[in-house]
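Reagents: none. Just compute today. Putative plant seed peroxygenase.
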Amino acid sequence: MLLIYLKIIEIFGKFPSILFPIEVKNIQRGKHGSDSGVFDTEGRFVHSKFEEIFSKHALKHSNALTFDELKEMIKGNRVPGDYKAWLTSYLEWKFLYVIGKDKDGLLTKEIVRGVYDGSLFEHLEKRQSEKKINEIRSI
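Predicted 3D structure written out:
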């Protein structure tokens, strides 16, 4: 948790709000050496880099990543000697995998896109609601 707070202070230059707002105007400040390149240095979404995540690394399913494929992608994005960025990248993707994987252990393209377009939590809420409805129906 401390790592997250320090990163937020680094990005925004101030003590973070307890509400964890996402300040899109400063999104480029979150870039690090071993990131995926989906946002450029000015914070613009680069569609080709997003598609590259799946075209290069999604080998078993064209629109989803297994955890092993995700680890290979993270390794492939590493900048030599930039250990802080290695750790940051691993933690970001691992956290996304933990909260976003489906019942088959796959991180879908839709969920990953949600990180970049801001719809991640809507997708997760919908998934959770569907799960609850199915549990109620099975009673």
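The longest strand covers residues 64-65.
Action item: order primers for follow-up constructs.
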